[in-house]
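Researcher: Structure prediction, please.
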Amino acid sequence: MKNILVISTSIRTGRRSHGVARYLTDLIQRDKLGQAKLLDLKELNLPMMEERLKFLQNPPASALAFSESVTAADAVILVCPEYNSSLPASAKNAIDLLNSEWQGKPVAAACVSAGGFGARMVWADLCKIMVTMGAHFSSNALAIANVQNHYSEAGLTDPDSKRHDERATAFVQSLLKLCQ
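Model: Predicted structure follows.
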C-alpha cells in the first residue's frame, strides 16, 4: 500500500480547501487506496523561504519535518485553492523550499475555487512549477468549483457524497499509476 501525503496548502482564515484535504485523506484511508497522511501548512507554519532547505545553516524544525514528510511519501496530493488566478503564497513558499525531494515524486493537484471554473488556472501554474522541479505531475486534476456549496473546513458537507467519492477515487487511482 502506497504512502500518500495530502498537503493542505492554504493558511487563510475560513479556508474551504482544507475540508477537501480532510475529505481526500479520509477517502484514501476508508477505501484502502493507500496510507494517507494530512499535512497542514497552517499548522506547520513554515518560515518564508530565504534559501532552499539544503543550503540553510540552521534550518527550522518545521522545514525539516516538511522535507521528511515529502521524502517519505510515495506520492503527494497538493490541495490548493485558486487565489487571484494562481496559487497562494503559502503553497509556492513550501514548494520552493524543497528541491531534490520533488524530483521523481508523483504529484497531483486537487484545485479548489469559490467560482464556477474549478481552479483550472492554479492547476496550470502548479503543473509548470512541479514539472520544473522534476516531479512526475499528474495530468489529471481534481477540480472543485463552488467549494462553499460542498465543503466546510471540516470536510464534505454535500449529501450527494457518491458523486464526490467517484471523482476523488478516480483522481487518486490516476496518481497511483504514476507510482508504478
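Model: The first helix runs from residue 17 to 30.
Researcher: Thanks, that helps.
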